[in-house]
Records
---
Amino acid sequence: MTTAACAVTLALVPAHHTVAASARTPDKQPVAIGTGGAVASLDPYATESGLEILRAGGNAVDAAVAVAATLGVVRPYDGSIGGGGFMVLRDGSTGKITTINSRETAGSQVTPEHFLDPATGEPLSFTEARRSGLSVGVPGTVAGWQLALGKYGTMNLAEVMDPATMIAKRGFVVDAEYQARTQDNFSYLNAFTSSQDTWLIDGAAPKEGTVFRNPDIARTYELIARDGADAFYKGPLAKAIADAVTNPPVSGTSPTEVRPGKMTTEDLASYRATELAPTHSDYNGYDIYGMAGPSSGGTTVGEILNILEPTDLSGLSEEEILHKIIEASALAFADREAYLGDPDYESVPYKGLISDEYAAERQALITDAASAKPVASGNPWPYDGGAGVGLDLAANSPAGGQTTHLTVADNQGNIVSYTFTIEGIAGSGITVPGYGFLLNNELTDFSFDPKHPANAPAGGKRSRSSMSPTIVLKDGEPYVALGTPGGSRIITTVLQLLVNHLELGMPLPEAIAAPRISQRNTTSTELEPPLYNSPTVDALRARGQKVSQNVVMNNATGVSFLPDGTMLAAAEPERYHGGAAGVVRPTGAQY
Ligand code: GLU
């Protein structure tokens, strides 16, 4: 980008921020059934952008990037070009399932002691680590979009980013969720002058019902549309990112010390998104494809399903089902903690972890009584075939309530299940000055303990993720695609969605709406209120299960493929003020 080009573009962009609402908010519904393609996301503007691209002849990959780019405008605290993510996609022309890894990398100068306070040698608090340059990884989202579009899309970045750019310029109507998210993360946004300038109106959250514009992100999108990913990873924008990380634009209001991070323009220039083989597990006749690489999602969901598979859950009571899920989840999370990290840096026993033989060994540990948690990890290596990294990851081309999941399908059999994030809500809190987007705090997903066997920080390494975008086939045909945000609760929610839908026969909207639980090898299992306040909890306690209440867990979306050939897009009906489902041609059918 030249300075002159930037100035011209800026002049065309309307002045910043809010006016009384006059713009139309797109319709928002949690379920849509029809043909021609389907989109589910957590925001109606984003879903509308995806439908617009599908109607214009784009495929599911094109539409998914359009949805994601729009989320970066209307839900900028959840996922954006300042972060990274994972996309599982089905190529309709070949039936092949593949994945795109756009996880952030640590700067080349990061060491295992990255999160230790140099003065004390002790780990920093999570909050202090997060609200700093230390937490920021090299963003991968733009490289991931370019890779996905180049190999599997039909449109270019300029075409698919256009709807989002127009929304950023014209503005969108702030809803209650947006206002609440800004308020809830005020201390992060207020800590940096660039974030105050970009996200706050007169020092406060934009109010519900007003129109919010972000001309800075519109200009940034136009740069990327014009020059491709190079506009992000090289030149003035890359320099602005590295500067913001190494010299955060502090406002002086942070309640904790804001430490500088480690990132160079070379780290940005050398970033590559990669294409990886998916994880695959066979569960009662369904083929489940998930995310490998630095995500623990596909492996851990697969291991839990394998442990559960020999049990006919549909014949059990709700309490018995939950007991089995709790016990299987604790066992798989113990293995996740012991073995899963970035396979480019650590040997990961992928084959062992999702082998039926290893699952049988783990399943034999489950009794009618609750185990004492945390439980110990097992040893999957004997089931790994001695391969070290069991999936053929190396053979894949290095081509080059936070977080958000979108699911898109078209009428050509292409499917995208895509989770992306800037980690915490509002990430590190640092906005790249003048460019309109927040930088992630993804490096706090590393273990702060430099001796952690699989997930200690290192230069260039990717921190372990829980993101679990998933595609399920039955008899080789698309059955359902889904995912969710929610930190490590992502894994337990995806697991529960799959059990509800595949095993217990709930239609996808019911599977999403059902109350959730989460057991991650911690003493207590979290339950949402409808379960926590039900008699089921007494029976769980009678077995020795410890339980606690978690008010709301995660914001899932999915698309299921109905027997009559129509598609059903589904989003949350209530959690986090609900999501938005849409189809190209509604049939008016009920599920
Ligand atoms: N950083 C998290 C992960 O990669 C995602 C953030 C979230 O959903 O909380 O697993």
Note: The pocket of glutamic acid is lined by residues 402-403, 421, 423, 442, 445, 465-467, 485-487, 490 (CB under 6 Å).
---
Amino acid sequence: MKKILVFALAILAMVGNVRADEGMWLPMFVERLNYVDMQKMGLQLTPEELYSINNSSLKDAIVGLGSEAKPRGFFCTGEIVSEHGLLFTNHHCGYSAVQKLSSVEYDYLKDGFWAKNYGEELPAPEMTASFLIRMEDVTNEVLGVVTSDMDWDARERAIKSKIRKLETAASEDGKYNPVIKGFFEGNEYYMFVYQVYTDVRLVGVANSSIGKFGGDTDNWMWPRHTGDFSIFRVYADKDGNPAEYSKNNVPLTPKHHLPISLDGVKQNDFTMIWGFPGSTERYMSSYGIDYNVDTFYPIIIDIFGKQLEVMDEFMQQDDAINLMYADNHAGLANTWKNFIGQCKMLRKNKVSEAKVELEKDFMKWVNAKADRKAEYGNALENLKSGYETMAAVAKPLFYPNFMMQVGPVSRTSIFEDYYDAVEKDDDAAKEKALAEMKSMDVDALFAETNQQVEKKTFAEMLKLYRNAFDEEELPEFYHKIIDKKFDGNIDAFADYVYENSIYATPENIKAFINKPKVKKIENDYVYIINNQMMSVLMGSALLYRMTNETIAENDHIFVKGLREYYAETQPGKSLYPDANSTMRMSYGSVQDYMPADAVHYDYICTANGILEKYIPGDYEFDAPKRLIELIEKKDFGAYADENGELVVCFLSTNDITGGNSGSPIMNGKGELIGLAFDGNWEAMSGDVNFEPKLQRTINVDIRYVLFVIDKYAGATNLINELDIRKSEPMPVREEVEVSEESEVKQIKPAKPAKPTKSSKVKAKSKK
Ligand code: ARG
């Protein structure tokens, strides 16, 4: 029975034309592939209003958020919401920038930050905003360089060099930033031409107890009551071009900005999400899935879990440590829980089993013809043996790799040049190395690390490593140093290292620099650990790299065959490419779901849930007093729904993944109704296989976002800047008094500014 069911599911997933909810589609094909479908579901815009390279269109309001000027990848998505370059994204997307702007004294993660005018906005470190100018198919140009005599390696090199040339040619002397990416495992190539703005400033962010309410306990799960938004502004030079930060820069006048709808959501309402999903594996073979579930994810879960445990212990007791590790912790915790969920749900949703059935059908089709057999006949076999090799080298690759990134071990490179110079007896090189050591900013090496956390992590990771391997597989130092000299007591060993190692503390590093000696390096326990871990790593790294290439090559062949297989067996089926940090559109509807037998999850949740979850003083479920009061009084202003409740988050069937965070979710008129910020637990397998019945996107409702900005924070300057619409002919906002005893600390801005005591806002009817 089970097997038949799985088989039936596999078939179901494969037949039919475009399915509304599944798919991350390239906007340039919207008219050809999706438009009719979208219109039927409730879209009211024309294809030209969605994506146009001649006129301004919706795509011009969608922004890729990166951390460098070259837009190879984006960590999140943002959207422009005013004619002055105001940008909304998630709280967890602005998190890193907000952390960098914070200090224990001005802790914007803890207390929030609201700029009252342009002058108070804070330049966000390492945040760039990329606008897509156009995209084009360059498959023929790129693959034109491939000849039949090339092996995979030569092919990849030829493609890379062609890509570089095409990108340079399209840059128009640096005006644009073109990026070419492979699709369908290197079977197609598209160029994306961006303009990258590097002056992005923080405008507003709520306290983490709103923006991260529920913490890692609620992360990846519904129901969710997180106000996951933050606000930035894109700045340009006076001509509207990208420019490095300067006082003379002005807010960007965008080609398009999204209007905001206060109409709210009903079940079955059409929704679309535009953004920059990072990566999916929808065409992965069963062998790849098994490798992840059985080998790769468990290793990472083990390592990250331990690191998080140590961080948690210190962070929850100390504000300074909490701030210092906030971003690092959030990133690890997010991946850690995601991998746990993926292991569980890939098994539970029987994703590998469904792939096995597909692969059987595929092979039947392949074997039916000699030419197919010649081209595709070995791909799956090669993937199978590739992943077997990968599974064998994973442990000796990843454990030492992460061990070498821990505190003192990660610093062993600082004396490497000196050591090499002495070894080679090269006096000039030695002089140079010594000069570099003398001018080294030692304290800067420790700016982002706390000694207690580091030492404990060092010790715990050594224990973890010992646990993960058989005794005879362990690097020598475990027996020769830790067992022999410290009786196997790793904590005592760590204490010794932090007293004595030349890599452990700023003092020890400085002392070494004053009196450097090669012998000191060679006898240093940390140096020894690094060397021995390195040789374990090197023992597997080459094989790992080669296997990776084998897998890439055979994935390329498999996906090529799969597309042919679909084209012949299911003509009319549109395939969408895996996510790869390029602009995509996904459309669906507002929907509830059944997470388990007899359990029904509603498609909205309200502020009442915040009261239910609220635990004063808790690390994850505390909430600002003023927020609680507003909710208790149901003082929601214009942001309440028709029952007087405040909707906080809602669910939709849109197909998204990491990188989509911060993406606008819009109604049929292209108006902003929320920000996408998460996926749901029951469909953690969703990056590999879309689960129509279970998979949902979690969005923060735009009315909750505006409520927090307006009623909670009193940032009416921002509300006035937005293009807010409501269908019924009623005023958008009632008269709002921002209370005198506003608990929102105004918020010790870096450049002190006068808090607004009371601001009265005239009801504005925008249409
Ligand atoms: N799961 C969200 C995502 O991947 C991130 C949520 C961040 N929140 C947190 N509690 N770590 O986009």
Note: Confidence is low (pLDDT under 50) at residues 1-19, 734-767.
